[in-house]
Write a structure and sequence with these properties.
Largest sheet: 6 strands, mixed
Shape: globular
CATH class of the largest domain: Alpha Beta
CATH superfamily of the largest domain: Zn peptidases
Radius of gyration: 23 Å
Number of strands: 18
Bound molecules: zinc ion
Length: about 400
Amino acid sequence: MTRAEKLLSGLIALPSVNPAFAPPNAATLRLRGLARYGEKQVADFLAAVAARAGLDVEFQPVLPKRSNLIVRLPPRNKIRGTALLAPHLDTVDADDCQFLPRRKNGRLYGRGACDTKGSAAAMLAALLELAESKSRPAETEIIFTGLIDEEHAQAGSRAFVRQASRLFPFFKAVRDRQDACPTVVAIVGEPTQLQVVTAHKGSLWLRLETRGHAAHGATPWRGENAAHKMARIVCALETDYAARLRRRKHPLLGTATVSVGTICGGTQPNIVPDRCVITVDRRTLPGETEAGVCREMAAFLRVKKLSAKISNTKLAPALPLATDPKRPLVRRLMRLAGQSRPAGVDFFCDAAVLSAGGIPSVVFGPGDIAQAHTTDEWISLASLERGQRLVLNFLRSLP
Ligand SMILES: [Zn+2]
């Protein structure tokens, strides 16, 4: 068994479900599965492995009992650049049996196998190998950062960015000089089939509300039906508005999208509903802003002679990612991965948060997003090994 596979098997066996997905009454009911929640054991396991290899280990407290893990390999000389390896430690929810790693036909099955315990295993295994080989970079610091809460609100990457100047003093230096930090890059671990991804969409969750007047169901003409108003809005968004978005294309990402996810209105059959609410998932392209999308949607509804109160339901922005593929370290990674063009993906991840915080980021990792969040989640062991090798080659190539 290779080092990456051994690490990954150990990681799959550990509880890692984001506590945001725990049933609201789990703590009081003391559900049997309660032990599944939280990233702490994953962080402790990786920290112990790194400490045994003689690496510097630090925890960054983020939320109660939830900390980012930070492992450092300093360069031989003065720091003139930093490569961050940044997989997340949390997973989506799972059954107990998904925490039993199973190997079959060249695949390793289990929750997090590809999203993203696989990236964490490949990246840390590469770093350990580099540290043992005594051929560490002359002037590039390598920081492995295991981030919490990616699957929910990205509290881990947001906290990392807030304290980046303390956690990673070289970043403060480039920030103070206001240079474009050509020697800094974050590789955010997600299953990209080992494609270097420089762009992904952003995600807005909008809430639209219509108001009407309640009346007796027997005399509906005395009221004003908020559900009927909303039905026309749903129809307009899913047809004409979606068609308008399909005309707007990004070379790596295709088109922006809209999808009505929930609808709720009325209280009982014999009352004309006075209120109806939908929530809408709007995936954005680089250049689109929350304010711009809300304005555009309101203007679209106005032209259709429809109206609704529009608000954003996300606590923190989920922005699109658009990193310049010509950045030197991005080109270097692409060259090693045998890739002539950058790639884009549909899903949102920590890379956008780090990028928005001034740390140029790409997404890269073994496994395929098609298996992420599925009950049968798996990773190809060949992809895991190749991922470890590519990360190691990249780290070895750093000045
Ligand atoms: Zn995920």
